[in-house]
Here is the input.
Amino acid sequence: MNAAAPTAPSRVAAAWQVLHGVLDPEVPALSVCDLGIVREVLDHGDALELVLTPTYSGCPATEVIEHDVLAAVQGAGLGPARVTLRRAPAWTTDWISAEGRRKLAEYGIAPPGAAAHGPAQQATVRLIGRRSEAVACPRCGSLHTERLSAFGATACKSLYRCTTCREPFEHFKPI
Amino acid sequence: MSAASIELTLTPATTYLLRIGDTCLILAQRLGEWCGHAPVLEEDIAMANIALDLIGQARALLAHAGALEGAGHDEDQLAFLRNERDYFNLTLVEQPRGDFAASVLRNAMVATWLKLLWQRLAAESTDDEVRAIAAKAVKEARYHQQHSADWVVRLGDGTAESRRRMEDAFAGLWRFAAEMFDTDAADEAAAAQGLGPRWSELEAPWRAEMRAILDEATLEVPADSAFRSDGKRGRHSEHMGFILADMQYLQRAFPGGVW
Here is the structure.
C-alpha cells in the first residue's frame, strides 16, 4: 500500500470537510458551505480548484472569503489550491442549506424566505405598496413583526423588530 | 511622483460597457457623500449599501471592459486614472447630491433605468460575462428601485415641505433623463453584435414605471425640455472635474497604493 499522496476523490472530500469549517466573516454563524457559495471543488492533479460564487456584487467579504478558504485548504495539507469565481448562475439565498437556516435562526437572524426568480415572479413584484412576506421573529417565533430598515449592517440583511417580544432582530434578505 | 493618465483604445463594446460601469461608479461616489449626513440612521445605511452594490457592479463592468480592451488596464486603473473626457457616465449621476429629496429621486430614476437595462442584458447579451454580471445586478437594482420609489412617494405625498422639495428635485433633475435613451453609433454597434439593447428601447418601460411612482406620489409628470446632456460621450457638466479630483487624488499621489 502506498500511503503517500491521497487519491483524487479523497482529496476533494477532505477539502469539502475543511470548507465546512470556514466561517463567513460577516455572519460567523454560517460556514461558507452553509451559505452555498462553494459551488465545486475540482482536483486538477497539480492543484485543487475551489469554485466560489460571490453573494452581492459589492460584498467586501468576498476577498476575505477567498483568502480564508485558500488558507484553510492549504493549511490542512491538501496541497496547492486556487480559487475561481463563478458569477453564473447568480447566487441566491435559496442556496443556503437547511442546516444554515437553522443556524441563522439560532444566531438571531431570521432566515430568508423563498427568493423571487424568473420572469413570472418578477412580474408579480409590485413597485409600490408591496406587502412583504411575514418574517417570523427568531427569538419568540411571532409573525407580528415590522421592518425598521430596508438595509442593515451588511449588504445581505435588513432590520426588523418583533411587536410581540419587543426585540429587534436582523433578517437575511431573500434575493 | 504622481500617476499619469491612461490612454484608452475604445471599441463600441467597451464604450457601451463603460457608460454603464461609469454611471454606477460616479453615482456610488455621490451616494458616499451621505455617509454620516443622512437625515436618519436607516437612510444613511441605505445610501452606503446602495453605493456598495453600485461599486461592485462598476468593478465587474470595468474589469470586463479592461479585459476586452486588452491593453492590460485593470478596474482600478480604469476607475482612477482616466481623464475626464474618457469617463462615459450619464450626466445625471455627476450632479451634486442636493438635498435628500434630490438624492432619492435620482436613485429612483437611475435604479429604474439600470433595472430595465440589467434585465435586458441578463436575458439577451451574447457576452457570457455581461449576462452573469447583469443577472446578479438586476436583483440589487430592483431592491434599490423599490426603496427609492417608496421615498419619492413618501415625500411627494407627504407634507407641504416634503412635497415642495420633491417638486424642486424633479425640476432640477428630470431634464437629464433624455440622455438615458438617445441612441448613437456605439449603441447601434452593441445592439448589432448582440452585446445589449439600444438604450432607446428602455424609454417606454422607464416612463411607464416612473409614471406609476409619480401617480402614487400624487405628482405631475414633469414636462420634457429641449435640454440635452452628453456625459456618456465624455462631455461632462462642470461638476465632473471636482468629483474626479476627489476620487483620484489618492491613486494620483500614491500610484498603485493599496489597503
Q: What stands out?
A: The longest helix of chain A spans residues 61-75.
